[in-house]
Structures
1.
Amino acid sequence: MSINHIRPWRHIERRKSRQIHVGNVPVGGDAPIAVQTMTNTPTTDVAATVAQVQAAAEAGADIVRVSVPDEASSKALKEIVRESPVPIVADIHFHYRRGIEAAEAGAACLRINPGNIGDEKRVAEVIRAAKDHNCSIRIGVNAGSLEKHLLDKYGEPCPEAMVESGLDHIRILQDHDFHEFKISVKASDVFMSAAAYQQLAEATDAPIHLGITEAGGFVSGTIKSAIGLGQLLWMGIGDTLRVSLSADPVEEVKVGFEILKSLGLRHRGVNIISCPSCARQGFDVIKTVETLEKRLEHVKTPMSLSIIGCVVNGPGEALMTDVGFTGGGAGSGMVYLAGKASHKMSNDQMVDHIVEEVEKKAALLDAEAAAAE
């Protein structure tokens, strides 16, 4: 921990890893932690898949994964890659030839599962295709699909088996002089995932992709992912991540960014600090925050907004935010700008007014950033 950091208790010392590239996105080293999601449309439906990729990218996804289960999907992938605003990872299971076809179709990265991709000869063919087409590879170990010999050895899925699977596959890639790879060791069990990732981080300098696989629906999956990924990120482990939810991929991206924002590891859009509300609130906090979240989705500039129902914590929270509103009495509250009380505003006009103030502040921050370049 750096003693020179202005708030040393907030400092995260990221694990040192090699840097690779997924298309034009750097992964590992000192690159920002990349947020990833996966489409759930039929890959052969190019229009629907491209629309989902574009929506995810607009929400902030740096990388999007697309399943390639059959030859028709391989053919569709070429057009998807051409129209995608972000690098595409081809998700390959069972059929190694799909990996070769995906590389030829322009995928930026191939995700292969050691538990079902086939023997070393088949992996070697995928590696050759990746080299020929400038693809990186993600070794995607999953507790639910470990190799039989490892299940026989350990008796059940466990962190040691997952890490051994990943290291065995790393050896294959390195034996074929291939080094543009990252690795994940996912499980649906938070404890198993965390233990496996900690062991993996000690065993390799490869970039690590984080995930709690099959985490569940929006609420339960968000909580499991926040716990599992949050503790690993806090320890400095992780170079890319995906929040796996039974929900719209856009929601995965939003949750991923919120996890990173809460740890100060990525900054994008408006970070709203709001109270849970109580009988002291001077306006409807919950409805106001729901409205502002939707109204401010278009703002990509990193900034903070406090929405607090009363003066118990409102002024104190506003000191630390770019824009703030604290509930008062007689149907109005106080607007704070740059941490200082600025002017009163009626509750019935405050949403439109806050949106205007946030947009003005975002434009100012953008102009300052452009001038500094």
2.
Amino acid sequence: MTASAIEDLLRELAPQVLGALVRRYGQFEGCEDAVQEAVLAAAVQWRAEGAPDNPRGWLMTVASRRLIDQMRSDHARREREWATAAEAAPGDVPDTDDTLVLLFLCCHPTLTAASQTALTLRAVGGLTTAEIARAFLVPEGTMAVRISRAKQRIKAAGSSFTLPDGAEREERLRVVLHVLYLIFNEGYIASSGSELHRPDLAHEAIRLARMVHAQLPEDGEVTGLLALMLLTHARREARTTAAGDLVPLDEQDRTKWDRGLIDEGVQLIKGSLAGPELGPYQLQAAIAATHADAATAEETNWPQVHALYLILERIAPNPMVTLNRAIALAETEGPSAGLALLSTLDGDERIAGHHRLLSVRAHLLEKAGDTAGAYEHYRRAAKATASIAEQRYLESRAGRVRTAGLPAIRRP
């Protein structure tokens, strides 16, 4: 088994083992630490000796013994048991998969979005603290404290390891989906740093979304989120040049788009849209599918995109939705109409000064022929983003419109 296959297997098994351990011992914090150590031990031993016949049982045995050691605080026993753990019988490993329960626990409402994201990546995604810290560009110590505090808050809240009922379950599921959406977005467009995207985070978000969809296949929003991720991730290879520079949607080489992901995403969203209700993720996936359906940027069905954004704006009002609707409106009614809609966002503190608002306004001013205004807003947008890749792109656009706006040199 290759190192990559072992890593994939460990990420699949880790939440299952953690769920079984928490259900048996009821100590989320201690169980999570024990599973992390078992995963690290497996990563070393399985690569050297190959995976055991019962990988899940191996992890369960090692993690259980580690947890018992912790509970007994017996250093000598810990050394002896760890030395023989890999040879121990796997014992009784439940067949149930508590991954969904685990996700609900990691997305506990007492936690901040940042803590929910970090804890989900560690407990359910199987990433180490160091990997999560690198992904979000913070020191490992900072991330360790964040994860530790999150586990302590869950313990203090006295949460039970069960799925909530009724309205609480539906509300918590929306939080889970939002956390997965945040993880994917950070992977698709990194908020800071030199790289435009972080494929490892995007892949992990898709993997977790598939996991949730497998357990809740009839939920329209779960299906919509998975479809949205697939349709968006399908463009990854076309989003940057060989040098790592950003390529906007209308300039991308669509032959580089992953048709397999697109076909899967379209199939998912088609089935989802047949349901009785539509949610934000379903509508965003429908918009992504509309873009994917166009062989060229010029063939995009912009009236349909605008109509979908109108519905999305009505059921889930958000300044980013309005901003994207302004782009679609400009394509159907001209840049002046788009700029007029953008002006309604100037007083919204959630987005005023955001580089996305500045860059979209610059784009529409450029389309309207106002090169001076476009230049100013491209420059301001470049200064407002922490992403080096986006900075380079926005500065290049500023340079382009500045050159286009210069008067022609009259030769004698």
3.
Amino acid sequence: MGDSSAGDPVGEQFGDEDLYDVAEWDQRSLLDTLAVKTHGAVRWGGKGLLILTALLLLVAQVGVIGYAIYRNPAIGGLTLLSVVPALGLAGFVWYHDETMREPWWPLAVTFILAILFASFAATVNTALSPLFDGIQFGMVLFFFLVVGPGEEFVKWLAIRVYAFDRSAFNAVIDGAVYGAVAGLGFATVENALYIVQGVIRANALTGPGTVEAGFQTAYARAFVGPGHVIYSAFAGYYLGLAKFNPEDAGPIVVKGLLIAAAIHATYNSIVTYVSFPGITFLLFILVYDGVFGYILYRKLSRYNSYYTRVTDEDDEPTVEPAITRIDDA
């Protein structure tokens, strides 16, 4: 089997000649320019269509959030409080990146795209969940085959659509930063939905004005949100690794998504089938997220240690010998 990375034989042999439209190509003619412009329009048009579809789904599915916040502004405050731990964890991942700090704009776009694309996951989850009814341990299958892969993919997609192609994404570790922000965006909209649903259910039982249920839901979701940050930071890290290893990009991306989906689905399965009385639920979350958070921390630290060595070597001055040896003269 030949080397797939090798160049065209004509290009390699006659590389010093003008091989335009023979074995090489660059933009020269009006037709070339048209081809470049058309490719760009199709590429960005596809992304635009994807984002527009996600926006329409989001409006259709969670427009109730805005109405609920309008009727009861406390819900908005509870949503913000519920994502504080996830925000802190995402901030830690961002701060732990010892390369050039990521600018706010691609981070903000990634956050917004994660909110938009969450509607895709919600649609798929709702449509496929009945298929697992009546099956023994059907929820485990649902989490491992649908929820975990689907939610981690849409968070990954929030990075891939925009930040991945930006010049600011210039190191492997940047993928973890954008992954953490995508997880934060996803957790924000998911928490808002759960809080609104909790208030609606409580209002149906006890009458309007019940915010206590929303507070209880926000309290619970505050400890769930960091998980989303950790899961997608893993997937994002491997997306960064794929960017700088294009020859193996596909398997690397799949590995990252498999890791994120497995951690996610395992968590969902445990909390669904295991009863945690009292404070033991909080302790479980702290241990579970702590273990995988530490693994992620070790991975980021290892990258940073190599990056520090690179920068230290670049900063070392070149010292010329003060005395010329006789045999060097």
4.
Amino acid sequence: MKSLAKLNENYQNLKESYLFSEIAHRVAKYTQENPDKKVIRLGIGDVTLPLESEVVDSMHKAVDEMGNASSFRGYGPEQGYDFLRNAIKDYYTRNGVSVELDEIFVSDGAKSDTGNITDLFSVDNVVLIPDPVYPVYVDTNTMNGRKIVYLDANAENGFLPLPDESVHADIIYICSPNNPTGAVYNKEQLKIWVDYALKNDAIILFDSAYEAFISDESLPRSIFAIEGAKQCAIEFCSLSKTAGFTGTRCGYTVVPKDLKVTASNGEVMYVNKMWNRRQTTKFNGVPYIVQRGAEAAFSKEGMEQAQKMIGYYKENAKIIADTLDKKNMKYFGGVNSPYIWFECPNNMDSWTFFDYLLTNAQVVGTPGAGFGTNGTNYFRLTSFGNKENTIEAMERFAKLF
């Protein structure tokens, strides 16, 4: 039977979810053939430590509230409850950045919002994306049929590319600290991007999901630490890595009220109002219980516990980095980021190295080819495993090289 419905044919231009499905296939085949071998996974960017006690206690209290008629809550505000938005606002203030309450939108994660934000933009916008890149940026715009221009991120520029003044872009994706490379832009570099965006009437979509891993106080944790950014940028952040919310789902997006665009009919359109309209139409908000947990994560005690959690992962990153140092292997990230990105040894491509590492050391990482052309000869390891496994994995790694 032939359907009369017309589908979005841009989906034909998407690659299959080849990276992680292929990793899962190869690991499953190896473990089936080698059931006596202990495989250590340092590939997935998922946390392994449990939620902190401050968060859990707050969520338990919220559950009890939901079981009592006098404190029960039904539909909440799509933008997030004020108690959480105020906590986020205070968090920005502590980091030296001022944002207003109605510029903050609570969501179920940065991944959702970096994809959904494209609802606000016409399909004839030109999108500038660094390569290598978090695949969601590419796939979302491919689904919508936009033209994508790639910017080379490579060892020569420290995987921190700057704009090419000869290239015009309307939408710019920047992730810092970067997934997958772990590289972090400094203030001077981000100022160049902001100036470029203002000159080109472009909008920067700034993914700061890993900002809590920045310990160098000279590095910006928000694009809004840069003069002029509120006229050209939207910021996405997440509690997934800040407080271990990967399975709890809570993030937030900051859309400045100063961000505006003149429409073809001459009318001024404010992006903050547009995003608010989009969310109130297509999003029902984050559960009250989760938002109470998120509020607790931003408290003094919650932040102290979160920093201990992040410190644990950063120690894992140091274990990985120290091993690479001893083997004289050049790498990026691992200091202000949970990811370590290094060139595959012996001129191997990333999939060949994946198989070599799995077969000879039973360690799983992520082939850089899955993040773009410039990742073909690079490999990503993550610090989100437990410490004992990380130590064992790098001991095995060291014996190979």
